[in-house]
Amino acid sequence: MSGLVLKLGPRERVLVNGAVIENGDRRARLAILTPGAHILRLRDAIHPGEVTTPVRRVCYVAQLVLSGDADPAEARHQLLRGIEQLSQVFTDPDSRSLLTQATEAVIAAQPYQALKALRALLPREERLFAAVRG
Q1: From residue 120, how far is each of 3, 25, 31, 94, 114 by CA, in Å?
Q2: Neighbours of 102 (CB within 10 A)
Q3: How far apart are CA 17 and CA 36, in angstroms?
């Protein structure tokens, strides 16, 4: 069996192609066999009030594509512009690699992969802000 396997805790919610699905009282394991299905764990979702930093803004746009709340073609331009802006700040090799992965995913119309690469930048961004505040 191939595809994405979701392991859900009790009462955990997940967004699948725009539909919110809530697990029951026990842990569950779901196999998503449809390629290209848009999946987002709601516990991992960035909520509108949390969109307070540059990386979070770009992640949020990718998340909107996954949830079906943004036009993929329009979001593509926003994502590529946002990634380009982030590349002006994140110049280390690891961050550049993540930004390249995100760019390639956006171009290939794979918003989940783009979001995954961009979310990996969140701890780095937090460290940068902490150093400035410090």
Answers
A1: 22, 31, 24, 10, 10
A2: 29
A3: 9
What's the CA angle centered on 46, arms 105 and 77, to 5 degrees? Answer: 40
- Contacts of 88-95 with C-beta under 8 Å, sequence gap 24+, read 89/54, 89/128, 90/121, 90/124, 95/121, 95/124
Residue 52 has pLDDT above 50, yes or no: yes
Confidence (pTM)? 0.86
pLDDT of residue 127: 93
Q: Residue 21 has what DSSP assignment?
A: E
Beta-strand ranges (E) seen in 9-115 are 13-16, 19-22, 28-32, 39-41
Compute the distance between CA of residue 69 and CA of residue 54 in angstroms, rounded to an integer. 20
- Percent pLDDT > 70 in the chain is 98
Taking the C-alpha atoms of residue 110 and residue 52, their distance in angstroms, rounded to an integer, is 24
